[in-house]
Request: fold
Amino acid sequence: MIPTPFDYVRADSIEQALDLLNEHGDAAKLLAGGHSLLPLMKLRLASPEVLVDIGRLAELSYVRDGGDHVAIGALTSHDDLSRSALIAAELPVLAHVAGQIGDPQVRHRGTIGGSIAHGDPASDLPAVVLALGGTLVLTGPSEIREVSSSKFHLGFLETAVAPDEILTEIRLPKMGSRGWGFEKLTKRAQDWAIVGAVAVCLDGNGSVGVGLINVGPVPTRALSVEAAVAAGSGAAEAAAHADTGIDVTGDLNASESFRRHLTRVLVERALETALAGEPA
Amino acid sequence: MDIAMTLNGSEVTFDVEPRTLLVNYIREAAGLKGTNIGCDTSSCGACTVLLDGRSVKSCTVLAAQADGSSITTIEGLAEADGTMHPVQRAFHEKHGLQCGYCTPGMVMAIVSLLGERGDHELTEADIRHGLEGNLCRCTGYHNIVQAAMAAARARELRS
Reply:
């Protein structure tokens, strides 16, 4: 399978990439690791006229201590996330989930920014960012703006990133040794989740963040579960309504009703693990 | 467009379309047919090569993305006199293949895994997790994992 013809330009700086986006408008598409975009192009579900390759901008591949948060460059690979000592210490849930994405070859190429900007509800990392209440940094031609993860995913494969902007950094509040849980059901080890759930204890007062993978058309927070836990419910009680209020997808892998069932079961398991992992 | 890379230690340049995939660059432009195309959807791992030392699925990388990089394929492992790479030797000794179609990708994935893990001892679980991206439809993986463990042990004995 070969993509339709396109022009390829490699950007050597963020500024040059922004200029290229400005010059080519809707015809252009950013390429990072290519592990979301290239499969779509090979299937000819996407046919950008100009590919702006930012994949080798070393200035966007980093993990930095930002005080109360960890700042992650958008081009940091899943493999680098899973091996970072800072992430292992301050965001262990991210280290674990990044190490479970796809397979080693995919983790060598795929990037956190590419995964989040692609906006696929089946991706694992958006759910982690949602559960942690992260912030996305978007760099445009005239300003740099910060968008809350809860306002970032607007629709199926649609995000708050404007056509002339680049997602450059992901900021995640440090969780240290707080409890967390991650569950995903796949057919084969390397597959996308049929359904997945991430639960993170956000403070010492019983507040949790819960992100859902591949449940609805967009990466989703399980707000009803978060509210139930905040009101004092245990894992089983809170998870019993995990699918409430969500436009749940039915597809070849799982009917809507089976996916609702999986959502409740996996959220309960992730919550149980998260709550049990809280320091006494 | 001209795409240049170091392919198995040799500098090569070929004029290809921007949409050329790395696996097609390797097989068609450079004529190295040891890298197989299996699923062509980044699932099976038959097309695994090393890009700057790390395993990638060359069906899901543009040749242009590898411009200026170092690529190692199965043809680049053995020494000039034909002496097999330790992972190739382990596959030979442990009968780690049947039809052989997945083998180049399996071998490259294991070479990458051994390189990434440095001096850490590799457990069977590490190897099975590390081979999640490579599918074999013949052998049931047992002898492939045995070969990988033999290669890992041989490395530890040398170091």
Summary: Chain A has a mean pLDDT of 96. The longest helix of chain A spans residues 256-276. The domain at 7-53 of chain A is CATH 3.30.43.10 (Uridine Diphospho-n-acetylenolpyruvylglucosamine Reductase; domain 2). Chain A touches chain B at residues 1-8, 10, 31, 34-35, 38-39, 42, 51, 53, 55, 79, 102-106, 108-109, 188-190 (CB under 8 Å).
